[in-house]
Specification:
- The chain is mostly helical.
- It contains 18 helices and 2 strands.
- α10 runs parallel beside α12.
- The two termini are 26 Å apart.
- 52% of the residues are buried.
């Protein structure tokens, strides 16, 4: 069997990365960044326990997403679709350790505007191979837990972001091309956006005042617009009509996502405190409201109540409350889920999205859900100068400007990365491979071996 050059290159790259760990010299002399670390005495055990738990909760969301997506595709593409989510736990983990975390939370690189300094991205050499990422807390970012724990918690967010994108171009993407794309996305889209929103001097958070408690902008808007770009680059499937293979998979995946989302949102408080408890409450309530809104709205539009609709509605609610989970009350969170479900439902069934073939409606659910969450956060978030109701039109205008900038950056940035990837390794599988199904054509595996053998 002839081995393609692209796979040999891939093996060489992973070999270099892993073997270099043996020879990577652990820094002995502290850099300037070392002064930003606190002491071991400042660590609060309760916060450590909660953040360790949250890390596990967020990690289980990626297998949950795999079941969620895997149950919705045709029977010839279940394994390939699920693997595209699972593989992110391998690819993005190594990228995050080597350079991603530095780009997101390294020493800031930016510009001075007036008396302030606003950064766009972190220095990629600050925490390369997790240099200086150890047991001491970081004074500016996570002052009561080991910096290693903060880095691992953030890594779980970085893992699920590209996994979300996969639902848009399911059933037609070449696996090796997809691997290259998620590397580029993590480095050039996700990490800089993460820095701009969540680093203390990040331009979106500090200059524009963007409120994003747990990733509505960083994770869901970036993934949603990247999904839209991917659909436009890859084009429609040859046969865009399929019956979901396994609705129980979708139910299981939704349950895992909802369970893990507690760590996603409540864990973003970074402490075991009242804010975490409030985020727990708003997350659960928004999802419940969105689930019921979705199925009732389906019914009054002539569609039957379905398990699939209930699951999609629940996830839309989770997405919409994410940027505001720690900033709004539980009653307000019901409104978040209600509005987001209505808007996403209308867009899911719009002729335009059906025309471009977003396979699993990623943009309509995650992209639009993230947009609605950001808009509603800009209206309702509590705190001084936090939103329209607590700061005025100027604050709201800054949020909307930031929303526009994020939309442009993530869509056109991802579109460019898809084009670059396609030039290096064509992303679309052949018509024959698509007809056969990606499970067999890409992975030589199948969900129904007996049927296929016959």
């Amino acid at each position: 069997m002839k081995i393609e050059k692209r796979w040999i290159i891939s093996f060489i790259v992973i070999s270099i990365v892993c073997i270099s760990g043996l020879f990577w010299e652990v820094p002995l002399e502290p850099k300037a960044v070392h002064s930003q670390f606190g002491t071991i005495e400042q660590i609060i055990p309760a916060d450590v326990a909660w953040m360790l738990t949250s890390c596990c909760l967020v990690l289980i969301m990626t297998p949950g997403l795999a079941f969620f997506y895997g149950g919705m595709v045709g029977k010839k593409n279940v394994i390939s679709t699920m693997l595209q989510s699972f593989i992110c736990m391998g690819v993005v983990t190594l990228i995050w350790v080597v350079v991603g975390f530095s780009l997101a939370f390294g020493e800031p690189m930016g510009i001075h505007i007036g008396d302030g300094f606003y950064s766009f991205v972190g220095d990629p050499t600050t925490f390369t191979f997790f240099d200086y990422v150890g047991v001491l807390p970081h004074k500016l970012i996570a002052s009561t837990v080991p910096f290693m724990l903060f880095a691992l918690f953030q890594m779980k967010f970085a893992i699920i972001a590209p996994a979300i994108i996969t639902g848009s171009f399911a059933e037609r993407v070449r696996f090796i091309s997809y691997l290259l794309f998620i590397c580029l996305f993590s480095i050039f889209i996700y990490s800089p956006l993460c820095h701009a929103v969540w680093y203390p001097t990040g331009i979106l958070g500090s200059f524009f005042g963007v409120k994003d408690f747990a990733g509505g902008t960083v994770v869901h808007m970036s993934a949603g617009f990247a999904a839209l770009a991917g659909v436009l680059v890859l084009g429609k499937r040859k046969n865009s009509s399929h019956v979901p293979t396994n609705i129980p998979f979708v139910l299981l995946g939704t349950g895992m996502l909802w369970f893990g989302w507690i760590g996603f949102n409540a864990g973003s408080s970074m402490e075991a405190n009242g804010v975490a408890a409030m985020a727990f409450g708003t997350t659960t309530t928004a999802s419940a409201a969105a689930m019921l809104t979705w199925i009732f709205f389906d019914r009054i539009n002539g569609r039957k109540v379905s398990a699939l609709g209930a699951c999609i509605g629940a996830v839309v609610g989770l997405v919409s409350i994410t940027p505001a989970a720690g900033y709004v009350s539980v009653p307000e969170s019901m409104f978040f889920g209600f509005v987001a479900a209505l808007v996403s439902n209308v867009i899911v069934y719009s002729k335009y999205l059906k025309g471009i073939d977003d396979t699993l409606d990623v943009f309509a659910c995650h992209g639009v859900g993230g947009i609605m969450g950001m808009i509603l956060t800009a209206i309702f978030a509590h705190g001084e100068d936090a939103s329209l109701l607590h700061g005025g039109w100027g604050v709201f205008g800054h949020h909307m400007t930031a929303l526009l900038l994020v939309s442009i950056y993530t869509f056109f940035g991802a579109y460019l990365l898809f084009k670059i990837t396609d030039k290096i390794i064509p992303m679309r599988v052949s018509e024959e491979a698509e007809k056969m199904g990606l499970d067999l054509s890409q992975h030589d595996e199948t969900l129904f071996p007996i049927e296929c053998a016959e």
